Prior knowledge:
This is Diguanylate cyclase/phosphodiesterase with PAS/PAC sensor(S). The protein is α/β, with parallel strands linked by helices and 281 residues long.
Amino acid sequence: EAKGAGRGTHCVFEPQMDEHARARRALEHELRDALTGGALELHYQPLVDLGTRRIKGLEALVRWRHPERGLISPGMFIPIAEETGLIVPLGEWVLRQACEAAARWPAWVSIAVNVSALQLRYRGFAASVLAALAASGLAAARLELEITESVLLEDTEVNLETLHTLRRLGVRISMDDFGTGYSSISYLRRFPFDKIKIDRSFVRDLGASAESSAIIRAVVGLGASLGITTLVEGVETEAQLEAVRAEGAQEMQGFLFSPPRTMAEIDVLLAAQEAGAGQAA
Ligand code: C2E
Ligand code: MG
Ligand code: MG
Ligand code: MG
């Protein structure tokens, strides 16, 4: 056990631990190269109005196109990027790419970008958001930053101040994965979020658990009374769509409407929607 070992103590690791540490270090190096070498790409998943089934926004989701392992999902490498501090330049790259993509899309589409705790805590964060908006020409009101509760757990005052600064500039702030942390509701009192994204675990359990639909209903009610838009994540079936619509949520995101897609595929979806009748500006 390395834990508790004093300075200068020789630590003996289990062979497989050593292996694990080595593989992780290798991955860390590869990730650094991927970021500078253009091997990261953004896919975009539609955020859809539950009533009209029209796209209102797109969430940027990063992928790593690995030469041997194919497309690697963020769940595999975002934690490593967070541990190594690489999340700051990686997050900045995501922000710039996403704003540039959105600036090419029609003005009625917003763009949602995930922000890690470490990134938000980084002193230059608000300035880097402004720089990304300025460089792309995207209106601040079209940018939504997605924050999870864990972000607010650390350095709360500093983080809240940064969020307030961004919000004053017109950027919107969403609470992501609502209901998975310890104190989701208390954070709604501390910061005026623009949107609550109800975690997909509640939708997954909809058929099996009466509690899940009661919780969705309660959160939608809470959002309505606070003037916060509610979106339900992970809608995969028509039955789930009907159920969350019945609870009064305004937006959804999920494989039923569309998985995350490449920019070229999104161009096609947006063009089809623009060509459709009755598109509100
Ligand atoms: P998230 O922000 O909650 O994003 C939604 C995740 O749910 C995405 O996974 C999406 O593909 C998945 N999803 C959407 N609809 C469905 C559905 O109907 N069924 C199922 N089973 N899954 C669905 P993805 O792309 O693997 O991203 C995972 C997480 O990685 C994200 O969760 C976010 O926390 C993080 N992430 C992704 N891109 C970035 C990034 O650029 N920066 C940071 N800091 N985190 C990122
Ligand atoms: Mg998100
Ligand atoms: Mg989420
Ligand atoms: Mg999630």
